[in-house]
Every structure is written in structure tokens, then in C-alpha cells.
Amino acid sequence: MSEHPMLAPLIERVERLLLRYQELKRTNALLAEQVAQLTLERDSLKSRLTTARQRIDGLLDRLPVDANAKDPE
Q1: How many CA atoms lie less than 13 Å away from 40 in the CB half-sphere?
Q2: How far apart are CA 57 and CA 50, in angstroms?
Q3: Cα–Cα dist 43/37, whole Å
Q4: Cα(first)–Cα(last) distance of the chain, in Å?
Q5: What is the pLDDT of residue 71?
Q6: What is the residue-level pLDDT of the chain in tens, covering all 73 positions?
Q7: Is 70 a domain residue?
Q8: pLDDT at position 12, please?
Q9: How many structural domains does the chain have?
Q10: DSSP 8-state secondary structure symbol assigned to residue 63
Q11: What is the DSSP letter of 1?
């Protein structure tokens, strides 16, 4: 069976495009996984930060207040 002279380059280009599409699809999946992991890490860090702030606020509330204290020089 004889192919049209323009068909072979077109077939090759379509095959390359399909390979590129598959590569981009894999890359996108990996990036989506990274985003999910980083989102979990961010949420965990935000939670830890909130807890630390609450602890610091609690400690500051326990500090004695000296009404006769002078301004530091």
C-alpha cells in the first residue's frame, strides 16, 4: 500500500505530539501531587503557628503588671 508523500511527516508529527501530551500529563500529575503535599504541610505549619501564638499569649497574660514600672531608657 502506497502512502501519500505528505502523510509520513504528518504521522510522525502526530506521534511526537502524543508523546509530548503523555509527558505533560505525567508532569501535571506529579505537580498536582506536590501541590497537595505542600498544602498539607502549609496547613500543619499554620496550625502549629496558631498554637504557638496562643501559648505565647497565655504566657504574656500571666506576666505581672507593675504599675510603678519606669520606661526603659
Answers
A1: 5
A2: 10
A3: 10
A4: 97
A5: 61
A6: 466 888 999 999 999 999 999 999 999 999 999 999 999 999 999 999 999 999 999 999 999 988 666 666 5
A7: no
A8: 96
A9: 1
A10: S
A11: -
At 4 the three-state DSSP class reads: coil
pLDDT at 55: 98
Domain residue limits at 34: 7-61
Residue 17, domain member (yes or no): yes
CA distance readout (Å), 62 to 26, 51, 54, 67, 72: 54, 17, 12, 15, 21
**Cα 33 vs. chain centroid, distance in angstroms?**
9
Q: Which three cell numbers stand for residue 71?
A: 520606661
Residue type at position 44 = S
Dihedral over Cα of 47, 50, 56, 59: its sign: negative
